[in-house]
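Quick illustration for those who missed Monday's session on complexes.
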Amino acid sequence: MIGVFDSGFGGLTILGSLLQTLPQYDYLFLADSARAPYGARSADVIGRFTLEAVEWLFDQGCVVVVLACNTASARALRNIQQLHLPAHRSDRRVLGVVRPSVEALAGLPPGAIPGETQPSDAVDVVAVLGTESTIASDSYGIELRKLAPGIELIQQSCPLWVPLVEAGELGGVGTEYFLRQALDPVLFRPHPPRRLLLGCTHYPLLLPAIRHIVPKEIEILSQGEIVSSRFANWLERHRDFETRLSRGGARRFATTDDPEWFAARGERLLGQRLRAEHVRLRELETEIG
Ligand code: DGL
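Prediction with D-glutamic acid bound:
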């Protein structure tokens, strides 16, 4: 199976695109709703929670896990890839959303090699919006400096946007106030960005309200299509993993909180009926926590 992990239900915005692009595979989606949001948590805690989720997905038979969550990708992925997998799970892979998103922001092809591939179109300034922890990690900055050092990156945290989405406040005067509070410093500057990435699984739900504020000439990128098309490309380049994926049309959903609450939100987001199961994640004493 392909495992897809998010701190909450927002990751279904990524899963929806994966299901459209790669419907042939079996999927297991896990939301750690009981401990979400992750966005204001420390790197240590996010590292531990993410590893517990990834290990649960491995135990269920996932060969490849996609961290749909930006905060988990920013804070936990590197340690999992560099320390945990080589020591304990060398036959599995965990991929995140930061690298493919940076490639798209910079106009680079999938799997671009630092220093070897030039951006195909000239963008000079781009921006990413994310949770406090994602922005504090500077993961987007680190990746962009590696892949396209000539491009300036504006990074803006939007601490209140996830709570707005969780509360179902997707528009209206109150929401617009908080959207503008984060967007104004990005838009009102001598060199505004040409592209703006919604670097959090919840933000696509605010897209109509964001589009209303952001000038037309600025392209807004959501991650669903970026991640699914670049993941498809990754599978083409990694046949040894692709051939191990099962193809039975399975779609399983698991949450660490109330499955009915999750299913109700998930159905609205995915536009299909779904049943979720409740799971408890095993606590891990980890050297990389
Ligand atoms: N899933 C998180 C992300 O993409 C947002 C929600 C949270 O803060 O946990 O960054």
